[in-house]
Amino acid sequence: MNIVLFGPPGSGKGTQAIKLAEKYEIPHVSTGDILRENLKRQTALGLEAKKYMDRGELVPDGVLIGIIKDRLAQPDCDSGCIFDGYPRTIPQAEVLETILNELGKTLDVVVNIEVPDVEVLKRISGRRMCACGASYHILFNRPEQEGICDLCGCKLYQREDDKETAVLNRLAVYKKQSQPLIEYYRQKGVLVTVDGTAEIQAVFDEISAALDTVPAT
Ligand code: AP5
Ligand code: MG
């Protein structure tokens, strides 16, 4: 099953993707995590992406296409994957469709996680991240040991683009460049919308219930 998790920054895409990847035993493909990992290794791609990410702008589509193509060609994606943060523009959605078609696959469902701006700002200001992709919150989703990831034991950090000006820009960019995808996917008949303001487990249960009705491909 190929699933896209869609929603504004801070809507819980990463949080839900990790849980869904475990339940459905398919990989979690986060373009944000891949870019951050490249930045950590100081690759040319990571350094190029940083210029956009720190300002809360989208990294140019051309950079993302190579990442997605390479990732989907890996054997662990054979039975599908969970896309988190891709696609974010209509051209990216068209590219994804072409790549999946070339591999004889289809996009089964797009989960649109709805969360209002005021909640996004509360969530992002208290977020703490791990390099493994896990995301915590100082009030809403605390790790067992303060500052340490429950999953891998690494030290948590605050993302550079979680500063207020970058977050406000990410929200504006989401509205302008990403939100049109909601109508795009609704017209394709693959859109499911969930209330992302509920507790993490309740959101997970709602997404799982929706995915369990999707016919296997
Ligand atoms: P990316 O890393 O994808 O960031 P984003 O879309 O802004 O989303 P976030 O990761 O901020 O939020 P999330 O929805 O994953 O929420 P989370 O689960 O962490 O992209 C970063 C940058 O990379 C972009 O700005 C762009 O520059 C570039 N980029 C990436 N992909 C790209 C693409 N395709 N094209 C171009 N550029 C691209 O949760 C947030 C917080 O809330 C956490 O603290 C969490 O613990 C808490 N939380 C989660 N769920 C709940 C809940 N139900 N109740 C209470 N708290 C909750
Ligand atoms: Mg994320």
N- and C-termini, Cα separation: 7 Å
The poorly predicted ranges are none
Helix count, per DSSP? 9
User: What's the average pLDDT?
Assistant: 95
Indicate the multimeric state. Answer: single chain
Structural class comes to alpha/beta
Largest sheet: 5 strands, parallel
The number of E-state strands comes to 7
Which hetero ligands occur in this complex? BIS(adenosine)-5'-pentaphosphate, magnesium ion
Q: N-to-C SSE series? A: EHEHHHEHEHEEHHEH
Could you tell me the strand content as a percent range?
5-15%
Q: What does this protein structure show overall?
A:
By secondary structure, the protein is α/β, with parallel strands linked by helices. 47% of the residues lie in helices and 12% in strands. The chain has helices at residues 13-24, 31-40, 44-53, 61-72, 90-102, 117-125, 164-178, 180-188, 200-211, and strands spanning 3-6, 28-30, 82-84, 109-114, 127-129, 135-137, 191-195. The strands form two sheets. Strands 2-3-1-4-7 form a five-stranded parallel β-sheet. Strands 5-6 form a two-stranded antiparallel sheet. Helix 1 (13-24) packs across helix 9 (200-211). The chain is globular, with a radius of gyration of 16 Å. The protein starts with a strand and ends in a 6-residue tail after the last helix. The model has no long low-confidence stretch (mean pLDDT 95). Magnesium ion binds next to helix 1. BIS(adenosine)-5'-pentaphosphate is lined by residues 7, 9-15, 31-32, 35, 52-53, 56-59, 64, 85-86, 88, 92, 123, 126-127, 135-137, 140-141, 161, 170, 199-200, 203.
